[in-house]
């Protein structure tokens, strides 16, 4: 009788250990392979219990360690060309997730067709005080006021150089580097010029970011005269580099521009001295739609996610019309489904980028969006992404 009492708890403990081990193995497998139901029902709800910036840092670490490898083979229909480069698919990760260039190869394994890191400033700076990122769970949105927290050009350059040297050129994902200015800089234009010269050897394209709402005075650089001077100097800097270091340069725009401001910007970028190679539409918004339900809606900073979706899509359509489709556009803002991506492509975007949906749904959202986009392209008779660009522009004009 006594022996039985001893053995029974031992059996229970053994059973618990085996069950716990099995659950751990299953969870690890589900996380690594990107099981969508597991992420949505188990993993991401747990992640949302962690403070947002801590969760973000852990996510970057997990991607850096290449823990996430959702299986998906890009179809020929998804393959596209942009900025003179071939992309396996048109879905990229927006700047803001991998700020310091730590997880480029891991993001490639998740299935992104191109990766944009940053923003990177010339000198290291801490950004704004914490807390500086807020979840709007009821709206599946985010407000952030990071303020260009950056490890600086030198650290990011060395990290990216090592990363690129680990892969043959034909196996590397297309890499964009988003450039910012230091908060206390006395010469903002020189900061961007320095970035162009520093990263020309590593980037596949460079982004001039003058549209973040979280650095005082930054958005004023979108004004006509300042923008003319900025782009003229940036393009001169590029022209001074060896031919093999002259990378496409894109300009990232704010979604809060007036129609007059947008027309002036388009006039600037169509001038020969300021002719950038593409536009990214758009950054986060300072607007707060009345439909927001979260208590964090009133936090200062840039809003991203579904509340931005229609605004950014309409802006893509306006820019496509104003430029007569002659300047490539990368569309950003509230892309959670293949249909969201398809709408932006129809409105005039040649490729799109994710951020908030990746934060809310994790790596499985990438193959999900690609599958859905592929089906929509096929269903609407398009043989490629490029065939669909701008084909529905008029219905998205606000």
TrEMBL record:
Its cofactor is FMN. Its EC number is 1.3.5.2. It is found in: Mitochondrion inner membrane. PROSITE patterns: DHODEHASE_1 (PS00911), DHODEHASE_2 (PS00912). Residues 78-377 form the Dihydroorotate dehydrogenase catalytic domain. It is an enzyme of class 1 (oxidoreductase). Keywords: Flavoprotein, FMN, Membrane, Mitochondrion, Mitochondrion inner membrane, Oxidoreductase, Transit peptide, Transmembrane, Transmembrane helix. GO terms for biological process: 'de novo' pyrimidine nucleobase biosynthetic process; 'de novo' UMP biosynthetic process. One of its GO terms (cellular component) is mitochondrial inner membrane. It catalyses: (S)-dihydroorotate + a quinone = orotate + a quinol. InterPro entries: Aldolase_TIM, DHO_dehydrogenase, Dihydroorotate_DH_2, Dihydroorotate_DH_cat, Dihydroorotate_DH_CS. Pfam families: DHO_dh. It comes from the Eukaryota. It is a single-pass membrane protein. NCBIfam families: PRK05286.1-2, PRK05286.2-5, pyrD_sub2. Belongs to the dihydroorotate dehydrogenase family. Type 2 subfamily. This is Dihydroorotate dehydrogenase (quinone), mitochondrial.
